[in-house]
What does this fold into?
Amino acid sequence: MGLPPQVLKRRIATELRDCGKYLGSDFKFDSERAEFPIRIDMHMSKVVGYEAPGKATTEHEFYIILTEEYGMQKPEVRWKSKIFHPNIMDPEDGGYVCTKMLDTWDFGTPLLTFLRGVEILVSNPNPMSPFGTESCMDAAKYFSDDSPKFDAEIHYGGTQ
It folds into this structure.
């Protein structure tokens, strides 16, 4: 069982205000009018991701759903813009976002932590744990095959 609705709405209002300060955005949340589930449409820019193999983008659209169990339950995220990522389904496949990054979610985890996690996930795909859709599997292969490779030559005794 979650928090009483009015207490939960105040928590959400506070967390959205904190998110707004961090992101430089103004989240207008009216706790008096709010009803669950609450959907927050997000536009994220200046975060590098991919629309297709080798085609970078810095503009992303997704939404977050907060239920009356928020706090006890982590938010749900659905992607709306085109993305080529092993851990984010293409919108045509449902737009689900792997939130394993928040497996340690607990009552005290704020929404800002969640948003930072989504930001990090977009730029740092994990090809070792893809969703099973064709686009996610293709992205996993792409990011595995095209990951940075390093060669090294070691010198001893001050030789160059």
The helical segments are 5-23, 111-123, 134-145.
